[in-house]
Amino acid sequence: MSELLIRGRVLTFLAEPQGIDDTAAWRYIEDGAVFVRGGKVVEIGEHAEVSRRAGPGVAVADHRPHLVLPGLIDTHLHFPQTQAIASYGAQLLEWLNTYIFVEEQKFAEAAHAAAVADRFMDELISNGTTTAVAYCSVHPESVEAYFSAAEARGMRMVGGKVMMDRNAPDALRDTPQQGYDETKRLIEKWHGRGRAHYAISPRFAITSTPGQMEMSQALVAEHPTCFVQTHLSENRDEIAFATSLYPQAKDYTDIYARYGLLNDRMLLGHCIHLGDREVSVLAETGAVGVFCPTSNLFLGSGLFDRDRFDRLGARWSVATDVGAGTSFSMLETMDEAYKVLHLNGQKLTPFNSFYRLTLGNARALGLEKHIGSLHAGADADIVVLDSSGKSAMEYRMRTATSLAEELFILQTMGDDRCVAEVYVAGKAMKGKGKVGASEKRVLETA
């Protein structure tokens, strides 16, 4: 069974920070080590002590002076939109019809789906993301490609075929029965296979008839361990259209509630224009609102109200939402999240940002036993971050005097160039396992 000692400045979260000085919420070890065996974390601690217990024959990946954290987690993006990033000049509904529905038709071809899936997984890894929740296209071929590419890399991934039977091109529509049958077959093949998790995925109320929503309801009831994902209240025109199609519903959220889709494994992309009643329903059901800052800004959709979710006790996570989202980087995503919340008069500390990228998003998925922190028994999904990965960052870091400052620099200026190494189930994926004996940077924890 393979063993590895990963050395560096180790940072992992134990709880959600309640302020920038809440040092009980995280563990930071200046000269730390993570001991990995068989793709799992055995223990973390001071390097000298962990190294002694690991024994003399263990391979060492020395990443000093870099930060060693749990792999980053992305809770909402679209793998068929990998080549549709930066599609100019439209809000949501026009953007879908002009660019996205055209792009997604290509995924009927298995070879195209496989090529994009490989590139998609590699983009995630190059940006330090080791787990993501993605929509595939309506074609089963896209789901096969998605999970096959993830399995080849050993990644823990969540995904599913979108179900759409109206308000989309003929080539992207299924039927309620077809959507049910194909989804069921894909669940039976992939859900729980290795590190794969299936997400039942009615795209959104606009593209699903009541008949398809009923089929989605049946799938959720039959497969309670599957995730569920859809979109909610991203754009005001979308809201008006969706509620016109379901006039009996109290509001957009009630459409999904009426079909029994809201539960603690439901991920609702965007959730921008919600009232207190709707957020309270999410709180009661445990459903997760997914904050997608780069796409919300790119499409001019609006600003997520994090404080309303917190005040009413609703769960939320954060995501890139590629391809309306403009980057695969969760660091760049948190930079925009900070700005969005700032515009709303809301604060996001650097520690809260990195909590959300790791343990917070893992908790949103109910996967915190496996990913999101470096506790004993966790999957050894790990990212190594270089806070001097860009020349401007290196220059700025010369004046940094605390860990909080360093994390904020990473979040504000960082991108894939700051990802020095990524481990998936203990396997180095970027080939930078040995960094060298650089002098360690000593920082305070706040």
Automatic annotation (TrEMBL):
Q: Which domain of life is it from?
A: Bacteria
Q: In which pathway does it act?
A: Purine metabolism; guanine degradation; xanthine from guanine: step 1/1
* EC code(s) of this entry: 3.5.4.3
Ranges for domain Amidohydrolase-related = 67-428
Cofactors, names only: Zn(2+)
Q: How is the cofactor bound?
A: Binds 1 zinc ion per subunit.
Q: What does this protein do?
A: Catalyzes the hydrolytic deamination of guanine, producing xanthine and ammonia.
Name it: Guanine deaminase
| Protein source organism | Shinella yambaruensis
